[in-house]
Write a structure and sequence with these properties.
About 65% of the residues lie in helices and about 0% in strands. With about 140 residues, the protein is mainly alpha-helical. It has one domain. α2 crosses α5 and α5 packs parallel to α8.
Length: about 140
């Protein structure tokens, strides 16, 4: 292993990644006006006590370390948020889109949030993939 790679790895703190990811997620959830149940579902349905611990301790000196699955889910949510803010003309329209019924093939006339409520990582990935295709990426 190279010394540069070792130096980077020794400075990397998974807890800081978790704290940053949770802060971003809960900011997006607030913009989308999600319920706590929807937030939990998008995060992979952690136990209620774990979820509320994550929510309250994300800015603590020693924030919780998230499982890889949860980090992946948050990454998809962030990508969905970014794509919507690129595609739609206003922040309000972008943030409202996930709760509006639409004719996108992935939603079957329902809302994107209903699709994402499926609870599987692939549900988030499908919405992200659809939006990336819509923006030409």
């Amino acid at each position: 292993m190279s010394s540069a790679k070792t130096a980077i790895q020794s400075k990397f703190k998974p807890e800081l990644l978790s704290a940053t990811a949770l802060t971003a997620f809960f900011n997006i959830a607030a913009a989308w006006d999600l319920s706590a149940d929807d937030e939990r579902t998008l995060l992979g349905s952690p136990p209620r006590s774990t979820f509320f611990k994550w929510k309250s301790e994300r800015t603590a000196k020693l924030p919780p370390k998230l499982p890889q699955d949860t980090l992946e889910r948050i990454s998809y949510v962030m990508g969905i948020y970014k794509a919507l803010h690129i595609l739609l003309p206003t922040a309000g329209a972008a943030d409202a889109w996930i709760k509006k019924p639409n004719t996108a093939p992935i939603t079957n006339g329902k809302t994107a949030l209903e699709r994402m409520r499926g609870g599987k990582v692939i549900d988030l990935a499908d919405v992200r993939r659809y939006l990336d295709a819509e923006r030409g990426g």
